[in-house]
Amino acid sequence: MLRFLCCCCFSSENSDTERQPLLHPGPSDPNGAGSVRKTRQAHSDAQTVKQMGRLVMRRLCVPELDQRFSDTAETFNGQHESYEAMVRHVRNLRQSSGCNHDDTLSLAECLGTIRDEHETRYRVSLEMKGYDFSLSVVPVGEGEEEPPPAHLQLAQNEIKGTSECAKATISKGTTLQELVGWLLRSKDQMAERVKEAAGTYQEQGRLNENLEENLKEVRRAKELSLRYRQRAGEVLTEAAQIAGTLVQ
C-alpha cells in the first residue's frame, strides 16, 4: 500500500517536474497556487542543467534505485565542476601570460613565456610530486626575500588550481565508471523492480519512461566523463613532461 502511494504521488504532475535532482526535492504546493509557474520553471531548470552538462534524474519510486541514480548524478556533477574549474584555471593562466590565442589546454607555451620574462630575477620551474604539480619560483640573487610579483603569484595559484582540479576530475571519473557500469548492466533487473513498484498500468508506463530517461542520462554522463578524464590526463601528462624540461 505504501509503495502504491509512493508511485501515485507523481501521477498528477508533469514529467518535467519529476526531472529534479534526487538529493534536493522541491517543497510541495498544497494549495496548487503557482503550479503552472513551477512546471515552467522545472522545464527551464532541466533544460539549463542539460545544456550545462550536469546530470539530473527522474524518480522511480524504488528507494535503492533512486539512490543509485542519485549517487551517479552527484558524482558526475562533481566531476563536471572539477573539469570546468580546471579549464578556467588554464585559460586564466594563458590569458595572464599572453598566450591565449587558441582554445587548447596546453601549459608549455605559457610557462615558457613566464620563465623567460622573469629569468633575470627568478628561477621558474614546474615541480611534480605524484599527481600534484606546482610552480616553483626561486630568487636568483642572494638576499631576494620579498615575495614574487603579483602576476607570478597569480600564475602559481592558477597552476595549483589546475593541478587540484585535474586530479579530482580523474578520481571522480574512476568512481563514476563503477556506478555507471552497474546501472547499464542492470537495466532488465531495474525494469522488473520498477514494474513491481507501479500501482497501476498507467503508473508503470510513467516509471518505465523515467527509467529510460535516466539511462539516457547515464549514457551521456559516461561519454562526457571519459572525455573529461582524457583531457585531465593530458594536462597531467604535459605537466610531467614540462617538469623535466623546465628544471635547471
Plain-language structure description:
This protein has helices at 2-8, 15-18, 35-52, 63-96, 108-117, 150-185, 187-197, 201-246, and strands spanning 122-129, 132-139. It is mainly alpha-helical and 248 residues long. A two-stranded antiparallel sheet has the order 1-2. 30% of the residues are buried.
SSE blueprint and pairings:
Layout lengths: L1 H7 L6 H4 L16 H18 L10 H34 L11 H10 L4 E8 L2 E8 L10 H36 L1 H11 L3 H46 L2
Antiparallel strand pairs: 1-2
Feature tags:
single chain; mainly alpha; two-stranded antiparallel sheet; 8 helices; 2 strands
What spatial order of strands do you see in the largest sheet? 1-2
Beta-strand percentage? Answer: 5-15%
Rg, Å, rounded: 24 Å
One letter per element, helices H and strands E, the order comes to: HHHHHEEHHH
Shape: rod-shaped
The major sheet is characterized as: 2 strands, antiparallel
**Terminal Cα span:** 73 Å
Low-confidence stretches: 1-17, 23-51
Q: Structural class of the helix and strand makeup?
A: mainly alpha
Mean pLDDT: 81
Number of helices: 8
Approximately how much helix is present in the residues?
55-70%
Tally of DSSP β-strands? 2
Summarize this entry quickly.
This protein is mainly alpha-helical and 248 residues long. The chain is 67% helix and 6% strand.
